Amino acid sequence: MQPSDSAIHPPASQYDAVVVDPASGAPMTVTTLAERLANVDVVVVGEYHGHHAAHLLEARLQQALYRQHPNQVLTMEQFNVDHQRDLDRYLNDESGEAEMIEDAAAWDNYRASYRPLVEFARQHDIPVVAANAPATIVRCVGRQGPGYLDSLPSAQRQTLPTDPFLDTPDYLDKFVEAIGGSHGTKKASLSDRMMNTYRAQLLRDNTMAASILGALRSHPGAQILHTTGTFHSEDRLGTVALLHQRAPSLDIAVITPVFWPFDAESPPSPSIATRGLSVLHPATAGGIQGPGARARGHAGPVRQVPHQRLRLITPNFHRRSTHSGTPSGRGH
Question: 19 - beta bridge partners?
């Protein structure tokens, strides 16, 4: 019996991934995915930092989206807003790559994971936006609390969004679960230190949401491609929920990675895949950064697990017409 064209077969290596339509469960090509996303305002690609398949998909999707919509802007968690000038100098051929990597505090895995995105943007005059909050400020908020922002010089404070600790329902639950807490833990029961760590996480998410909106204002009609760790986007929480809260009219598509275990004969169940949940813990799997480490200002992957293969990547096509403003579902 011949296999169905719609059958999902596990990728053969860590460089491969399958894109799946969450509505039908059928596989999609990257070209078909880009066609589906042609009129979306913001495409958010969640990634497992350092995972080969995730980064290869990002590069291929960037190119496919560009063919559909050449007016593109790349916004990246992997660069901080205080290094925008350093990034621009490189994009404008005013500095070399090695200088940019050092001056812009590029992540340790820049050459292997993000160089293709930046080089494609550079070759096609695509703006690249350093979207994340400054690492030193995030670190200090994590240690001293939100009041630290009051001590910043005006110029530094202006690089951060208004309402830098804007929050959304369910995100705290996800955060507590990720750091080893139990579901349903309330804010009142968290230590001051842990709440400061959470606020540092919110500062990152709010800064990225504000950076995306700034890119849309600066480049009318552009489509935004945003790359970020999946913790910031899965279940449409984190940066995505804050972006909806700040600009409810935006059409936002989210692509979420899902692990398909080696010993599983079939892909993750539709309920898991559609919600974008991973079967592995995000603090240890595939080089993922846990939120605690990110809040302390790490600028790269915490650890790598090179033998895990990314089996499934699921696009989420929820738009403003279906988004309730209160994300549902639980994430890692």
Answer: 28, 313
Q: Which residue's structure tokens are 């993750």?
A: 268
Q: What single-letter amino acid sits at 316?
A: N
DSSP for residue 18: -
The rounded distance, in Å, linking the Cα atoms of 27 and 267 is: 11
| pLDDT tens sequence across 26-37 | 888 899 999 999
CA angle 123, 253, 92 (to 5 degrees): 20
Helix (H, G, I), strand (E, B) or coil at 123: helix
Pairwise CA distance, residues 134 & 159, whole Å = 9
- Mean pLDDT for 131-144 is 97
Q: What is the pTM (predicted TM-score) of this model? A: 0.83
Phi, psi at residue 151, to the nearest 5°?
-90, -5
> Between helices 84-91 and 115-123, what is the axis angle to 10°?
60
Tens digits of per-residue pLDDT, 243-292?
A: 999 999 999 999 988 887 777 777 765 444 443 322 222 222 333 333 44
* Residue 276 near residue 230, CB atoms below 8 Å: yes
Q: How far apart are CA 317 and CA 39, in angstroms?
A: 12
Quote the DSSP letter at residue 100.
H
What is the reported pLDDT for 16?
82
Q: CA 84 to CA 86: how far, in whole Å?
A: 5
Strands, E, within the chain: which ranges?
A: 19-20, 27-28, 42-47, 72-80, 128-132, 223-229, 252-258, 312-316
Q: 258 forms bridges with which residues in the sheet?
A: 312
Token pair, residue 286, equals 């595939």
- Dihedral angle sign, alpha carbons of residues 255, 276, 287, 135: positive
